[in-house]
Amino acid sequence: MLIRSFLSMALLPLLAIATSSLATGDENSPPNVVFFLVDDLGYMDIGANNPDTFYETPNIDQLSKSGTRFTDGYAANPVCSPTRYSILTGKYPTRVDATNFFTGTRPGKFRPAPLNNRMPLEEVTLAESLKASGYATFFAGKWHLGPSEEYWPEHQGFDVNQGGHNAGGPYSGKRYFSPFENPRLEDNTTGEHLPDRLAKEASKFIEQHKDEPFLTYLSFYSVHTPLMAPPELVQKYKDKAKRLGLTDKEAFGEEEKVWGKADWKGRPVRQLQSHATYAAMVEAMDRAVGRVLKQIDDLGLTEETIVILTSDNGGLSTSEGWPTSNLPLRGGKGWIYEGGIREAFMIRAPGITKPGTTCSEPVCSIDFYPTILDLCGQAAPKEKTLDGVSLQPLLRGEESLDRESLYWHYPHYSNQGGFPGGAIREGDWKLVERYEDGQVHLYNLQEDIGELNDVASQNAHRVAAMRDRLHRWYKDVDAKFLQPKDGQQPWHPFED
Q1: Which terminus of the chain has a lower count of CB atoms within 10 Å, N or C?
Q2: How far, CA to CA in Å, does 382 sit from each of 209, 316, 456?
Q3: Cβ contacts of 456 within 8 Å, gap of 6 or more
């Protein structure tokens, strides 16, 4: 706590001297920040990325048109808690062994790597950095970054916490409909829909703090399971699927099997977007986004507010209801293939971003922390480790960042069937390394976005160079790996 107090005192003068780059009319006025984090939203689930999507996302699509959309934006991990950690700290979650969803310890052929299931209180979070500079800070929705209340949002820099606790989904009460029986969300009207309630709370906070800088962090429980939505919306998409002739008879293909039922030859993977309930969940979430954006507009704050939207991992396509398809991306949530880590990723920074622009530079959730501080005219605490970089040069139209590689480390057997492995991306190239046996694959994403054509054997020199950089990164972040099971020893990158 002494460290936190010192950092807070050190950061307070920054508010007075920071010069906002936004077109606010007052060059010394720091911008507001609204951050939307959608749980389990697939890259191909929004119209901005996929004009042929079955789902309807007009508000997110309009947000994309009003700022910069990143075509190659990534989550730091293929499941939720690690990515959430990366957003709030600007660090690879591997640095603290937060490498799976918290409490996820499924064994497979081997035991998984050790797992830290909480975001350390010593971390200086995004909320703490902004709060120290005079920002009012608000959190709503899914937290999933600690097992008990001392690790919940109100102890990690947020003044207000509406609905954030240890759970990874709305599993209490009537789940997506009130009464929610959520320890951080008061039950009001019976039957209230959770996405709308969270948007209502966010909008209320924005109105209350319209005359001071604020961070509003709306972290939807949607579109995570359980698969539930308002009946009228579900019927809308049932009718739509019928009108388009979409059925589940040809909706599934086959992915590789790492674990699963004995009678599975491979793991089923959805290849057609036609799930009516999931579609309704996506639209309900989009409506909630629209409600908050309208509040910003109605209060005249549009030109003073940075707005960001992303997801924590790819769409759920290989288990738990198989609700969405990520094609042409391979795999989904729980997989280090593109379907599991490539995300909706958009930023609107008035006065900086040009409406309707796209950027193909690979970027990652570790970049949000330094980007937001940079856009707010602040520097990160000198004592803090940062793996991310500010994306402001890209937002201003520069072509590339001075960064060679992005990395992933997932030493676990995912609930969705994904295998333990790591990956590195450099330019158009992505190398995948399997942790059970050390096998590697190389893909050219420009030519093979579906990661179906392994060209490792034709590019031995590139494989060796990328693998060497990946292994050096493992050492830098002190990565942990699979553990022995039943007398069997897994492969390890630093053992012969």
Answers
A1: C
A2: 29, 38, 41
A3: 431, 440, 441, 442, 463
What CA–CA distance (Å, rounded) separates 426 from 276?
A: 38
Does residue 161 lie within any of the structural domains?
Answer: yes
CA distance 222 to 131: 27
Cβ–Cβ contacts within 10 Å for residue 207, how many? 12
How many distinct structural domains can be found in the chain? Answer: 1
pLDDT of residue 17: 36
First to last CA, the chain: 44
pTM score, whole prediction: 0.94
Helices (H) and strands (E) in the chain, counts: 11, 17
Mean pLDDT of 36-55: 98
Whole-angstrom distance, CA of residue 450 vs CA of residue 40: 19
Report whether 29 contacts 318 (CB < 8 A). no
Site of tokens 């010069």: 19
CA distance 373 to 351: 16
133: domain CATH number?
3.40.720.10
pLDDT of residue 135: 98
- Rounded Cα distance, 401 and 448, in Å: 23
Q: Report yes or no on 487 lying in a domain.
A: no
**Number of other CB atoms surrounding residue 13 within 10 Å:** 10
**Cα–Cα distance for residue pair 385/255, rounded to 1 Å:** 38
What is the spatial distance between Cα 36 and Cα 454, in angstroms, rounded to a whole number?
Answer: 35
Asked, for residue 298, whether it belongs to a domain, the answer is: yes
Residue 193 scores a pLDDT above 70: yes
CB 111 within 8 A of CB 484: yes
Quickly list DSSP for 242-292.
HHHT--GGG-EEEE--SS--TT-SSEEEE-S---HHHHHHHHHHHHHHHHH
Cα–Cα distances (Å) from 158 to 169, 215, 301, in that order, read 20, 9, 21
Q: Concatenated DSSP letters for 343-407?
A: E-EEEE-TTTSPTTEEE-S-EEGGGHHHHHHHHTT----TT--------HHHHTT-S--S---EE
Task: Read off the tokens for 483.
Answer: 């553990």
**Number of other residues whose CB lies within 10 A of the CB of residue 166:** 18
Are 153 and 139 within 8 A, CB to CB?
A: yes
- Residue 384: C-alpha distances to residues 90, 379, 381, 425, 464 (Å): 9, 11, 5, 25, 32
Domain that holds residue 187: 32-403
Q: Tell me the C-alpha distance between 45 and 66, whole Å.
A: 19
From CA 435, how far away is CA 421, in angstroms rounded? 5
Asked if residue 202 is part of any domain, the answer here is yes
3-state SS of 45-111?
Answer: HCCCCCCCCCCCCHHHHHHHHCCEEECCEECCCCCHHHHHHHHHHCCCHHHHCCCCCCCCCCCCCCE
pLDDT tens string 342-372: 999 999 999 999 999 999 999 999 999 999 9
